[in-house]
Write a structure and sequence with these properties.
The chain has eleven helices and eleven strands. By secondary structure, the protein is an alpha+beta fold. Among the domains are: 49 residues; 153 residues, 2-Layer Sandwich (Nucleotidyltransferase, domain 5), CATH 3.30.420; 62 residues, no CATH class. A six-stranded antiparallel β-sheet has the order 6-9-10-11-8-7, with no helix packed on it. A five-stranded mixed β-sheet has the order 3-2-1-4-5, with helices on both faces. A hairpin with a 2-residue loop joins strand 10 and strand 11. Helix 1 runs antiparallel to helix 2.
């Protein structure tokens, strides 16, 4: 299995989309901050070798200074017997002085770690080394979307969903809701589209893309049916990329840590107790100050946001849908209830009816993209 860090995940996703013709060379080069000739070289390697092209050429190669097996066995034997109660620094010094074995500090530490030998003499915990992904070069190239359940105000937990621009770290919009649902994410994305325009990539975690996940639920299933948002974004040619770890979307995770440190105290100070008050305070009062303190300037001042066409009705495009089959008596079963279609003399038997649920709570019914009405009566199934 090929292991990749967040930069390599992004590079592979862009290369595969360019190869499939979903995005242009120019687009892909801007996202990766590489020249088109470099992207062409990546694509040529991708066609020949596949996903391994994103790995460095020295990956998995035998290092030139690898320790000889016999020397490694001798060091292990001495550490297990003669120097078993030494710390690592002391043991390495003794190996050099008494056994004439010279071994580099990092090499010796890796050897001890691999075999669980000797005690460490470090006073602080060593962090796992991770590669740092550079910010996007332009505003609007990539947005990170995530939610954080927390006691933001009051005694009960609520969820704050935010969209943060990768190039600047600026929180473009955020909204509180009882839980982190797909509808809450839709509301945030719609607001960004209205206020800023169409962006190119949405970077988020994998919650909700494989159906229900009871482990991650918070009063409800986390982002159930998230594929509906991906389908809505496809109308604008916005691509969704999924992170495989929290570290991969570190900017939005760090933003939440800052918010939990600052925003909670401010809302307690201003006696914010309801979701409506919290949404108003967060976007109108808190965010402007947060932007001044923490937002960065992009390396390329030209914005990649594309203005939204005025004729586009976002409320019509963002919804969750389910499909049922119309029975011979022009009824269908949905959530343990039988619904009767007002057919107007047309025969819909055997057709699929699409049930569209909108963030505002409205539910509409469509057959072949034509809206149909229901009769008032409905029968509940025991």
């Amino acid at each position: 299995m090929l292991q990749m860090n967040s930069s390599e995940q992004l590079k592979l996703d862009v290369i595969s989309r360019v190869h499939a013709g979903k995005i242009s060379f120019k687009h892909g080069a801007r996202i990766l901050a590489k020249s088109e000739s470099t992207l062409f070289r990546y694509l040529r390697g991708y066609k020949k070798r596949g996903a391994v092209v994103v790995k460095h050429g020295n990956s998995h190669k035998k290092p030139y200074n690898r320790m000889a097996p016999d020397l490694e066995k001798r060091i292990l034997s001495l550490c297990r017997s003669k120097y078993h109660d030494f710390n690592r620094t002391h043991a390495r010094e003794e190996l050099e002085k008494n056994e004439q074995i010279i071994v580099l500090k990092d090499t010796f530490n890796r050897l001890c770690n691999r075999h669980g030998l000797l005690k460490k003499n470090t006073r602080r915990k060593k962090h796992i080394a991770r590669s740092r992904r550079e910010r996007m070069s332009q505003l609007g190239l990539m947005l990170q979307l995530d939610g954080s359940p927390h006691r933001w105000f009051g005694v009960r937990k609520t969820c704050l969903v935010i969209a943060i621009d990768d190039a600047t770290g600026d929180i473009l919009y955020g909204e509180f809701s009882p839980t982190e649902t797909t509808f809450a994410c839709m509301n945030v994305v719609k607001k960004v589209l209205r206020d800023h325009g169409v962006f190119q990539l949405l970077y988020t975690d994998r919650a909700g893309i494989f159906g229900k996940d009871p482990i991650n639920q918070f009063y409800a299933v986390k982002r159930e049916g998230f594929s509906a948002l991906r389908k809505s974004l496809s109308h604008f040619n916005i691509h969704v990329i999924y992170a495989f770890s929290a570290e991969a979307k570190g900017r939005v995770e760090r933003a939440f840590r800052t918010l939990q440190d600052r925003l909670v105290a401010e809302m307690r100070l201003h006696e914010i107790w309801t979701i409506q008050e919290a949404n108003r305070y967060f976007n109108e009062i808190y965010l402007p100050r947060h932007r001044e303190l923490f937002a960065k300037n992009p390396s390329n001042p030209e914005s990649a946001f594309v203005p939204l066409v005025s004729t586009v009705d976002l409320d019509e495009l963002f919804y969750m849908s389910e499909v049922r089959v119309v029975r011979n008596d022009h009824t269908f079963l949905y959530k343990n209830r039988i619904y009767d279609i007002e057919n107007g003399g047309e025969n819909y038997a055997g057709n699929e009816i699409e049930i569209r649920s909108y963030p505002e709570g409205q539910v509409r019914y469509f057959i072949d993209d034509k809206e149909v009405q229901l009769r008032k009566s409905e029968e509940k199934i025991a």
